[in-house]
Amino acid sequence: MSTFYITTPIYYVNGEPHIGHAYTTIVADAMARHYRQRGYDTFFLTGTDEHGLKVQREAERQGITPKELADRNSDSFKRLFEKLELTHDRFIRTTDEDHKHVVEHIVQRMKDAGDIYLDSYSGWYAASDEAFYDEDEIEDGKAISSGSDVEWVEEASYFFRLSKYEKPLLNWYKENHHHVQTDARRNEVASFVDGGLRDLSISRTTFEWGIPFPADPEHVLYVWVDALTNYITGVGAFTNDEMFNKFWPADCHLIGKDILRFHAVYWPAFLMSAELPLPKQVFAHGWWMNEGQKMSKSLGNFLDAFELADEYPLDLLRYHLIREIPLGSDGNFVKARVVGRNNSELADNLGNLVNRSMAMTNKFCDGKVPAYIGTTAEVDVALKANAENVRKEVEEALDRRETHRALELIMGFSADLNQYVAMTTPWKLNKEGETQRLNAVMYHLLEGVRWVAVMAHAFIPRAAAAILKAFGIEDEYPQYDTLEWGGLANQTPINAPEVLFTKLELPEEEAKPEPKKESKPKQESKPKNEGIIEFDDFLKVELKVAHIKAAERVEGADKLLKLTIDAGEDETRTVVAGIAKSYEPEALVDKRVAMVANLKPRKVFGVLSQGMLLAVDTADGGLELAEYSANVAPGTRIS
Ligand code: MSP
CA-to-CA distance for 327 and 286, rounded, in angstroms? Predict the structure, then answer.
């Protein structure tokens, strides 16, 4: 039997779980469920990272022992994951007894390989990241990449010969692009390694909260050696060979982009040194912002994971987190968008599909699945082909870790089923007494609903279970091999679920119309040249050529389009423009238009808009954008 082993990072216990922790673990859970549904013997590991300076300091601050802090917060993560109904097979803690032995083993193997030596370390360390930084990675007392404070460290230390693994690591990245994902992140890591690797300090003597360095308890092992090793402890390394051989190497280490270096450089190097197989994949996902703002301690704007789980139905939270951003990209958590997705996608699309198909079954088919009589009607044949294609594409999307795409496909199929109802009009068939055709249509519809529910299980397990229960199917992980078109048994009684998705109200501040700007207090005496500005004033407005890379409608706002813009900068911008009545989204892609580039970003319908396009009103009441030819490079200043 094929196996699938997926891990999340283990979470630091210095604080409470937030959206970032919930996100990784929910995505990993969806993957674990999906592969279980495909018959893979699956192991899903998550847990807490409890040692190190960062945890010790937080415990000191709170006046408790590190172990007390670890117990308390580890428990909090555990409770969160239970509340989120996640299906991890083990919740590992780095203070677990078996883990200590595995760490001792791996370090011993690294020693045996001649890869560990004693020297002294002097350099910069950021306790918040538990990371060492080179001089050129520091600015104004902070690590440039993370913004964390650094401190100078000088002490005796054991080193790992990381430099020895430069070439093997580069080969590993090159050998198979699947090993480190996304492509952009792999390229970043590869160029970091290509720039030369220095040996890594892997022990500290100035604090105590950690696993003692084997054979030299004066030293505490560097927390990342300890932490990364959890991935092999979790599947029985050095304790349960059968299990270890079955699940190792991991199929996917799902992590956040900030900890890629540890996973794609240090971890494979440790494993090479210890002569253990390398993971099949390290996949770095992006970061969430809160309503357009980076979350930070100083702003106190972390989205608390428990609060999110209280505020939204579980399925909606999973659905939104997975659907909102491609795995690998950054995202912006906007409450209005969660509500929008709930109402227009879950309730209006899927909820409506299930309600109407089950209600029609009651009305027209005596509450039972009608007999399936093969059909040659073009719409039916097309529906079956569509279902089979979606199923295949969902599997492929998951194999590429495109979780958002999988959901898009499933919901697209749900919309196609709604379309099928509109095309086949069962109520008319019923009225006209076309029983045979009616039965064929209703069978196809219900079979389609079953397929949607099976595929959706990994993402919205509660709703999927409720739908499948209506068909009398109560498998813990509804299997993909039941997806044979025609698999739904004739005469199955249908017990429609009560309500699948309840519509939600927009958060208050979003529902209110934007407050009218207060007009400025009138000036006492009007300047003479009213309306005339200085050239310098004109220069304050930064007009630039914007290349439209993508365009889509903003759900629930019929005038708005959300555009992805290349303005010649490192990152693309999002611009919301009120031009949906004049332009189809597809027609905009690749156009070069004029944009005000230095307007203060503004939230429009829950989306942060980072620019404004220039357009004129046309005689017919539409809008026409100012355009440039392909000769003009994106970002060119308009003056
Ligand atoms: N303990 C280490 C991981 C060790 S793995 C062997 C650690 N822990 S953490 O608790 O700080 O972070 C855990 C994960 O949360 C990381 O993958 C990080 O990327 C993720 N996130 C932290 N903030 C995040 C967002 N704002 N958005 C999405 N994920 C974020 O690092």
Answer: 7
Give, using CA atoms, the residue closest to atom 22 of ligand 1: 20
**pLDDT tens by residue, 233-248:** 999 999 999 999 999 9
Nearest CA to ligand 1 atom 18: 256
CATH number for the domain whose boundaries are 344-482: 1.10.730.10
Q: Which fold has domain 541-638?
A: OB fold (Dihydrolipoamide Acetyltransferase, E2P) (2.40.50)
- What does the angle CA 248 – CA 249 – CA 250 come to, to the nearest 5 degrees? 95
> Is 284's C-beta closer than 6 angstroms to any atom of ligand 1?
no
Rounded CA separation 383/420 (Å): 8
Residue 288 Cβ contacting ligand 1 at under 6 Å: yes
Q: What six digits make up the tokens of 617? A: 């009103």
Cα-based distances in Å from 134 to 150, 161, 398: 11, 17, 38
CATH class of 3-307: alpha beta
pTM here is 0.81
Long-range contacts of 65-69 (CB under 8 A, 24+ apart): 66/209, 67/95, 69/13, 69/14
> Is any atom of ligand 1 closer than 6 Å to the C-beta of 10?
yes
Mean pLDDT throughout 363-386? 92
pLDDT of residue 639: 75
**Whether residue 11 has its Cβ less than 6 Å from ligand 1:** yes
**Ligand 1 contacts CB of residue 23 (under 6 A):** yes
CA 282 and chain centroid, separation? 14
Atom of ligand 1 nearest to the CA of 227: 6
Q: Establish whether residue 9 lines the binding site of ligand 1, counting it when its CB lies within 6 angstroms of any ligand atom.
A: yes
What pLDDT, on the 0 to 100 scale, is given for residue 518? 44
Give the Å distance between the CA of 372 and the centre of ligand 1: 50
